From TrEMBL:
Cofactor needs: pyridoxal 5'-phosphate
Tagged with keyword Cell wall biogenesis/degradation: no
PANTHER family the record matches: PROLINE SYNTHETASE CO-TRANSCRIBED BACTERIAL HOMOLOG PROTEIN, PYRIDOXAL PHOSPHATE HOMEOSTASIS PROTEIN
Source organism (scientific name): Ruminiclostridium hungatei
InterPro entries reported in the protein's UniProt record: Ala_racemase_N, PLP-binding_barrel, PyrdxlP_homeostasis
List of residues that carry N6-(pyridoxal phosphate)lysine: K38
UniProt protein name: Pyridoxal phosphate homeostasis protein
Function recorded in the entry: Pyridoxal 5'-phosphate (PLP)-binding protein, which is involved in PLP homeostasis.
Gene3D superfamilies on file: Alanine racemase
Occurrences of domain Alanine racemase N-terminal (ranges): 9-230
GO molecular function, one term: pyridoxal phosphate binding
Family: Belongs to the pyridoxal phosphate-binding protein YggS/PROSC family.
UniProtKB keywords: Pyridoxal phosphate
Length: 235
């Protein structure tokens, strides 16, 4: 992908997000785009930066750390992949948000490490809506218990929910997955729990972001749709 191809892809994605947002009574400005930069070289990421995007997502700690060094300091890094408890310490002062909280043990470690840095870190709870065995995330039934536990942690701010939908040929098939999570998100929002603010619903990837936005996502994580096919197979 050349610089201009990447910028064309972004124009196209923003157009499609605008249409999807309008279908659900919102505007393009209400939707946050996280450019998923895993496996992508720094010069390509620079094109996205020049376009104006500042939110970048990585799913591996090591790769995030390398890119953190190479890209401008105002990039907001999102850790979107499964995070091992023993790696929290490496990224705690470098990320804007952790999308993939999937155990209380992990939440506790994030809380304690954030405390040592005197910061309060934004996290999302990852929910495995469809119960796919190959995916991380807690079940929809567990969400409320987790929300109540994380609400007690002083150095974590629970900002919303995240999911990765199953891959399907036709993204219409997974509309119920997105709708289901949106309903849980709204339900928690209405409960007005202290230290919990349901501001972000992170769902939708290259294959399915339009359906996700139509169903209420306000944060999408797009990789191949911007950068083209990844060099090596990584989910
Ligand atoms: C890779 C990845 C994405 C982006 O996937 P694309 O299909 O390339 O858009 C989004 N979210 C997570 C958690 C990922 O690991």
């Amino acid at each position: 992908m050349t610089d201009s191809e990447i910028k064309n892809n972004l124009d196209n994605i923003y157009d499609r997000i605008r249409t999807a947002a309008e279908k659900s009574g919102r505007r393009l400005e209400d939707i946050n785009v996280v450019a998923v930069t895993k496996t992508v070289q720094t010069d390509r990421i620079q094109s996205v930066y020049e376009y104006g995007l500042r939110d970048m997502g990585e799913n591996r700690v090591q790769e995030l750390l390398e890119k953190y060094e190479r890209l401008p300091a105002d990039v907001r890094w999102h850790l979107i992949g499964h995070l091992q408890t023993n790696k929290v310490k490496y990224i705690i002062d470098k990320v804007e948000m952790i999308h993939s909280v999937d155990s209380l043990e992990l939440a506790k470690e994030i809380n304690s490490r954030a405390g040592k840095h005197n910061r309060k870190i934004d996290v999302l709870l990852q929910v495995n809506v469809s119960g796919e065995e190959t995916k991380f995330g807690i079940s929809p039934e567990e969400v409320y218990e987790y929300v109540n536990e994380i609400a007690k942690m002083d150095n974590i701010s629970l900002r919303g929910l995240m999911t990765i939908a199953p891959y399907t040929q036709d993204p219409q098939d997974i509309r119920p997955v997105f709708r289901n999570l949106y309903n849980i998100y709204i339900d928690i929002k209405r409960k007005r729990i202290d230290n919990v603010s349901m501001d972000y619903l992170s769902m939708g990837m290259s294959n399915d972001f339009e359906v996700a936005v139509e169903e209420g996502a306000n944060m999408v994580r797009v990789g191949t749709g911007i950068f083209g096919k990844r060099d090596y197979a990584q989910k």
